[in-house]
Amino acid sequence: MTGLVIPLALSILAHVLADFLFQTDSMANEKNNVQMKGFLKHWCVVFVTLLVLMLPFKLTDVLMYCFVLSLFHILIDVFKAQIESRRGPATKFIMFIVDQFLHLVLISFLLPISSFTVSRSFSSFIGWFSIHTGLNLSSLPVQRILLITIVYLYVLFAGAVFIRKLFDLIYKNVPDYLQRIAGDSSVLDNVKTGKVIGIFERLLILTLYLTGNVASITIVIAAKSLARFKNFENKDFAEYYLIGTLASVMIAMVGGMILKVL
Questions:
Q1: Is the distance from CB of 43 to CB of 30 less than 8 angstroms?
Q2: Segment (H or E) for 43
Q3: d(CA 99, CA 30)
Q4: Tally of structural domains, the chain
Q5: CB of 177 closer than 8 Å to CB of 171
Q6: Which of 63, 133, 166, 202 is found 20 to 30 A from 127 (Cα to Cα)?
Q7: At which of 70, 105, 140 does a domain end?
Q8: What range defines the domain where residue 188 resides?
Q9: What is the distance in angstroms between the CA of the first residue and the CA of the last residue of the chain?
Q10: What parts of the sequence cross the membrane (predicted)?
Q11: What are the pLDDT digits (tens) for 180-228?
């Protein structure tokens, strides 16, 4: 399995990029409405992303692997969308976790029955690059770099989706809960920018945790709270803010723990 670690990491990285960075809102909405054009677009994104990341290996080795993996990726998404279309927020929250688990299981299943040989052109490029720059790329801790990248992307972007689905679950009996929490349009805009703020928040917290500056995390939370201080008069907003902040911190800390253990 040692020789499959890098293909495994690249496959997971392709999955994270295709699902959380390269998937547009319109594409996600089409998938949620079980529209085949949404799945077709997403399949193209998954296949191309996976193929590009697998370029260091021989094309004859990875082409079929990329096709099969991307195809089953979409089949899992179709299965998920069909279940979610008939269910409520609780099922959608659970299916988000199940979906991620199934994708990882799929990758782990396909890897051992596939072959990966580094292409001559990539080996030649590594040699050429080392000669002309003096940097030996082959000495880089590639596995560690890929692991850190995957965890960061999961924490930052998958974390945003997780928190949104968590809110949908908590406020499942409150129609248009964002409007109720916001109170007016100006605050509503602030609530919607919470996703971006949360991404930066998790980036800082995860980095501070990994560098051993755990005490500094309180400064990040305090600065965020100070910016929203006036909104705390709205009890609904205060609860919304607290849940989001605690969930965001938890996700970042779990990501940091995973990196420290691995």
A1: no
A2: helix 36-53
A3: 17
A4: 2
A5: yes
A6: 63
A7: 140
A8: 145-261
A9: 16
A10: 42-72, 145-163, 203-226, 238-259
A11: 666 655 555 555 677 888 999 999 999 999 999 988 999 888 888 887 7
